[in-house]
Design a protein that fits this description.
Blueprint: E1 13-18, H1 25-35, E2 46-50, H2 53-64, E3 74-77, H3 83-92, E4 93-98, H4 103-106, H5 108-117, E5 120-123, H6 128-145, E6 149-150, H7 158-169, E7 179-185, H8 196-207, H9 209-218, E8 239-241, E9 246-250, H10 254-268, H11 280-290, E10 297-304, H12 307-323, H13 327-331
């Protein structure tokens, strides 16, 4: 039986940014303002949301400094522990952009509200277990209401996925790719800083790997990718890429998981997933784009120009691993807030 998607109501805002006063959220606000009401941008209305009105006001002032905040930016108080406030956000916007992490702890109520209301959802999550659990739990409801739920729309995993797609499309038959590697190098003239939510997500991610494996075993088996050629060799622990001037180690990140999920989806949908009320022109472009994407093994490497930098990365990995060996160790860094 053919089903039709429900018509979505008129909304006050194109996007509401939830968690706008957080470490990453404030940068998202600053970037969004660059596109607000510009001639070529579809972003015409914007609001920011979070727990503290005072912090949100300061975020907006910081984002536009030294200018004055635009008068038409709304500030909305909402909390991930208050479902009615989240549903209220969903009724006011086309897209809810969630910057509140760790997503394993704080993300599900936001996904639930969007899936229930039909509001489209984006986040900057880099936590595979959260992404896969949300798909398993809310996919059917999202389909019913017409909600698009899309994770990993930040550093995890836009650069990796777009880079993979571009690379794989460059191979002209009969040539095909076997494996594609992405290299992440942290180099800056300024001080590189992290934030506690990302650190917390890393600790919880390592500590709960068993739950991710349990979730995958409980779900229907995904089709296997048909990748030409042998599986890539394991290689050395520390590799030296002279062409790009880096030494690198394997980085266990969400990027490889996200890319693989996309490739598996393409097995059943080789021309991509059709959009709601998609025009014939858009459908033609979608099919042309995805038909050129070729499957390949994908890995991510963390690189440094020096061995000392590599040893530092290894040290951080060992430290996080030790913290997750027992219950007490998992709680130590999480009590440092």
């Amino acid at each position: 039986m053919e089903t039709t998607q429900p018509q979505k109501p008129h909304h006050l805002y194109d996007i509401i940014i939830l968690g706008a006063s957080g470490f990453t959220g404030k940068y998202v606000v600053r970037e969004a303002l660059k596109f607000l009401n510009t001639p070529s941008s579809p972003l015409k209305t914007l609001a920011i949301a979070g727990r503290s009105n005072e912090k949100l006001v300061k975020t907006l002032q910081w984002a536009v400094h030294p200018n004055s905040p635009p008068p038409d930016i709304s500030i909305i108080t909402a909390d991930t522990t208050d479902p009615p406030s989240l549903l209220s956000l969903c009724t006011q916007t086309k897209v809810l952009l969630n910057c509140v992490g760790p997503f394993r702890i704080l993300g599900e109520p936001v996904v639930a509200a969007c899936a229930a209301s039909g509001c489209d959802y984006l986040d900057i999550c880099g936590e595979p277990e959260f992404m896969e659990r949300m798909e398993a739990k809310y996919h059917e409801k999202a389909v019913e209401t017409g909600s698009l739920v899309v994770s990993a729309c930040g550093f995890d995993s836009i650069p990796a996925e777009v880079g993979f797609m571009f690379n794989s499309q460059q191979w002209v038959a009969p040539a095909v790719p076997n494996h594609i590697d992405a290299y992440v190098s942290l180099e800056s003239d300024k001080k590189i800083v992290g934030n506690f939510a990302t650190y917390e997500s890393a600790v919880l991610g390592v500590a709960n790997m068993d739950k991710l494996q349990e979730l995958r075993r409980s779900r229907p088996r995904k089709p296997r990718l048909a990748i030409p050629g042998p599986h890539p060799p394991k290689g050395t622990t520390i590799e030296h890429q002279e062409e790009i001037g880096l030494r690198a180690i394997k980085l266990p990140s969400a990027d490889a998981v996200v890319v693989r999920r996309t490739l598996v989806t393409l097995i059943e949908n080789p021309h991509g997933l059709p959009g709601i009320n998609e025009s014939a022109e858009h459908a033609e472009k979608r099919e042309a784009f995805w038909s050129l994407v070729k499957p390949a093994h994908f890995g991510v490497k963390l690189g440094s120009k020096s061995l000392l930098g590599i040893y530092r990365f290894i040290g951080v990995g060992i430290f996080i691993g030790l913290l997750t060996l027992d219950g007490f160790g998992r709680q130590v860094p999480l009590r440092m807030k």
